[in-house]
Amino acid sequence: MNKSKILVGDVVKVIAGSHKGEIGPVTSISKDKRTVSVQGIDVVKHVKPSQTDQEGGIKQIPANINISNIALQDPKNKERISKIGYKIENGKKIRLAKASKSPLKKAGK
């Protein structure tokens, strides 16, 4: 299992692939830490009818993106960042973008 600097709720930018340049919060990370799902990035797929889905047809399905194809978004200058620092404030550990020294906030907070 790999250690990842990206957590659920972090705002990320897609840096490679067909969705390059799109920005959104991470909604889920796979257990093996290799793929993530980003809100607003979907794939169009043909789905065959089944017992549960009588219609089938063309559907929008959330895309899983390899973790190497996304980068954290710097909250201050809106560029991607590569280094994360930490600071303890009021007894809590806060993640910072090292270049701009701004705290990384989760999308929901």
From TrEMBL:
Keywords: Ribonucleoprotein, Ribosomal protein, RNA-binding, rRNA-binding. SUPFAM superfamilies: Translation proteins SH3-like domain. Residues 5-32 form the KOW domain. GO terms for biological process: translation. Gene3D superfamilies: 2.30.30.30. It holds the Pfam family KOW. GO terms for molecular function: rRNA binding; structural constituent of ribosome. GO terms for cellular component: ribonucleoprotein complex; ribosome. Belongs to the universal ribosomal protein uL24 family. One of the proteins that surrounds the polypeptide exit tunnel on the outside of the subunit. One of two assembly initiator proteins, it binds directly to the 5'-end of the 23S rRNA, where it nucleates assembly of the 50S subunit. Part of the 50S ribosomal subunit. This is Large ribosomal subunit protein uL24. It comes from Mesoplasma corruscae. The gene is rplX.
